Amino acid sequence: MEFYVYILFSASQNKYYVGYTSGLEERIRKHNAHHKGFTGIATDWALVYKEKYGSKKVAMEREQKIKSWKSRKMIEQLVHNQS
């Protein structure tokens, strides 16, 4: 099974969201459905970055590493420097 670390961006909120999942398309759909939680504040979340992993553990560790930066600038550098 493949796992993804992903970054979404909401233009209306001018915010990024970092997560991981094994079902990327479905997960993005759920983020854009009106619900409780951080991403429920908007319905325009767009995928701006993703990394693929063969292990849930490694994907979770990478997600936590990115979240630990607590730096919008570093997240934007990651997004803009992707191949």
What would your notes on this structure say?
This protein starts with a strand and ends with a helix. It is of the alpha+beta class and 83 residues long. It is built from 3 helices and 3 strands, in the order ββαβαα. A 3-stranded antiparallel beta sheet has the order 2-1-3, with helices on both faces. The protein has one domain: GIY-YIG endonuclease (3-Layer(aba) Sandwich). Helix content is 37%, strand content 29%. It has helices spanning 24-31, 56-69, 72-80; strands at 3-10, 15-21, 45-53. The longest helix has 14 residues, at 56-69. The model has no long low-confidence stretch (mean pLDDT 94).
Structural class estimated from helices and strands: alpha+beta
Rg from Cα: 12 Å
**Number of E-state strands:** 3
Supply the CATH class: Alpha Beta
Task: Tell me what portion of residues adopts beta-strand conformation.
Answer: 25-35%
Q: What is the end-to-end distance?
A: 23 Å
Uncertain parts: none
Helix content: 25-40%
Count of individual helical segments = 3
Main beta-sheet annotation? 3 strands, antiparallel
Average pLDDT confidence is: 94
According to CATH, the fold-level topology is GIY-YIG endonuclease
What is the CATH architecture annotation?
Answer: 3-Layer(aba) Sandwich
* CATH homology group: GIY-YIG endonuclease
Strand order of the largest sheet: 2-1-3
Topology:
Elements: E1 3-10, E2 15-21, H1 24-31, E3 45-53, H2 56-69, H3 72-80
Antiparallel strand pairs: 1-2, 1-3
Task: Sum up the structure in keywords.
single chain, about 80 residues, alpha+beta, GIY-YIG endonuclease, three-stranded antiparallel sheet, 3 helices, about 35% helix, globular
